[in-house]
Fold each of these.
Amino acid sequence: MSIRRTLMKAGMSLAACLGSLPSSGVVCKGPQTMQTRLRSRPDADGYTELGTWFGDHNQYACAVQTFQSALKLEPKSGRLYYLIGLSWYSASSSSIGLNMFSA
């Protein structure tokens, strides 16, 4: 299977999983400097940096949401699909994270 087809399949799996994100009013707040940078200049690298920060601080739902924002700007990024799957896996949603990448 080509990498492009794999990424497309992962994207469809991701879309199916997004409804599983906590919607209980979770407010994602990272470091002020990162948030200020994204407000003034939103880009995929900034969202990826913030998503990584959330992951490092065990805020996996926030990490997924932030990586999704980056994915909107770079929809063909395999790295972002990987980071989203890793965040799901780290949140003990391993079946979701692993299913994103199964053939």
Note: The chain has a mean pLDDT of 79.
Amino acid sequence: MFGEEVVESYIVSMTRGVDDLLAAVVLARRPGSSTWPGGLRGLGFVPLFETATELRAAGDLLARCCASRPTAGSSPPAATCRR
């Protein structure tokens, strides 16, 4: 009845930099972080920009995040970017 398809997005509150968003991605991708059969492969990470300053910087932050290169053995951060 419920499963992976219930949750499509993980909202990262107080996103101020690329590292805030990528930290959530890295933690979610760690082995054992999910009890779902397929893991969290389909989960999208959504930054929440909560101040005017964060909103003004949002375009640049998202561009830098989507351009980030993965480290060995990690999932590509660009895979979390939906354009």
Note: Confidence is low (pLDDT under 50) at residues 72-79.
Amino acid sequence: MQPSRHVADASEFLSWLKSSRSGDVCTYFRGNLAKTRQQLLRGGGKRASIRREEVDTLASTAMDYSDRGLVHLLQRRGLNSDGRRRMDYLAVRASSRRAQA
């Protein structure tokens, strides 16, 4: 699999999607997505609320475009710089003939 571009939010994801070609890959989250969403729900304060909204919006956007057949969503195990395990959440651009807009 080719190297991937990392996107930080839904806006960057949509920008990547518009310019990508079949087989292009982007990483839309690093870590444990479900755990992060859960921790942000429990966390308080405005900052946690904003971050939760960003994470939810990005994950929901990726799922929406997967449901439309424009991307395939994958998970890949990786290592942090300190050697700890992490998950990379990837979107792979689908071929245009299979996409449902």
Note: The mean pLDDT is 85.
Amino acid sequence: MFMAKGMSEMSNQELSRYNMLRDLDVPAELADKHSQGCPFILLSDLTAAKHCKQDTTGKAIFQVLRHLGRLVETPIHKDRVYTTV
């Protein structure tokens, strides 16, 4: 989403979200994955999304994906980052 737009094309809300993600203190092993282009999502983004409910079914799906090794969960600054393997 952010990579497709220039700084002048972003709304104030998108710009503040971009700055928050840019200033996020990411652990070294996670930063290496992100620099290689591994997709990631924050738990706070999931809870704010309208199309993804955080009910028991949604939480169970994430637990199964973590158990099968398809997702890696990393806690970071009162939030959690999910990366694909």
Note: The CA atoms of residues 50 and 57 lie 15 Å apart.
